[in-house]
Amino acid sequence: AMATIPPLFYTLMRVSIAVPLLIMVASLEGPLWCDDVKAVAPRCAALGLLGVGISQWLVLEGNHRAGASLTAALQPCIPVLSLALSYALRLEAFDFRKAVAILISVRGAIGLTHVDEGALHRGPSAAVGILALVVQVTAYASFLVGMSIVLRNGYKHVSLRAFVCATLAGWVVLGVLNCAMVLHDGLDETRR
């Protein structure tokens, strides 16, 4: 049955199950829609579009085109990119040992994906998939750092509620993308 479910719809189903659970846990932190949550909601929602909605679509597209091995190989780059971005924005202290660790990690992931060779020997579709995955890990790392920036200025006490807000925004994007895909596929079926 899993083979007949479109990946984007499967992701939408996963998020649909996760969001109510996240809301239940976040409600333990306090009222879900208090003034502090309202203050950060627009920024969290924008970050959710990037980190949940677009990032999920990119990982599915990259996995479809480049394969599960390359998808799995690139995911460990997320913490590395988060650290590098945090350093670039002067949010994280950095030293020589961290720099070496980042270089080794990034080089290892690039070596596994053969981005340094252009990935053309795998075909243009795989190259597009690898590009989608590189953008996906960068988008998710940016989401994490962005959430940190939003919450660091006196809003740490609403961190889980803000994350729920971001997830809901991403969920809406996934829902719209999925509806568009289903409608497009439905129109194609009726034309045949």
Relevant terms:
192 residues; mainly alpha; flat; 0% strand; 7 helices; single chain
Commentary on this structure:
The protein has 192 residues and is an all-alpha fold. 79% of the residues lie in helices and 0% in strands. The protein has seven helices and no strands. It has helices at residues 7-27, 35-66, 68-74, 77-88, 96-113, 124-152, 159-191. Helix 2 (35-66) packs across helix 3 (68-74) and helix 2 (35-66) runs antiparallel to helix 6 (124-152). The chain is flat, with a radius of gyration of 19 Å. The model has no long low-confidence stretch (mean pLDDT 79).
Helix and strand succession?
Answer: HHHHHHH
| Low-pLDDT residue spans | none
Based on CA inertia axes, which overall geometry fits? flat
Largest sheet: none
Query: What helical percentage do the residues reach?
Result: over 70%
Annotation, overall tally of beta strands: 0
Q: How far apart lie the N and C ends?
A: 24 Å
- Count of DSSP H/I helices: 7
Compute the gyration radius: what is it? Answer: 19 Å
Structural class: mainly alpha
Strand portion: under 5%
**Overall mean pLDDT:** 79
Please provide a brief summary of the model.
With about 190 residues, this protein is mainly α.
Helix/strand layout:
Elements lengths: L6 H21 L7 H32 L1 H7 L2 H12 L7 H18 L10 H29 L6 H33 L1
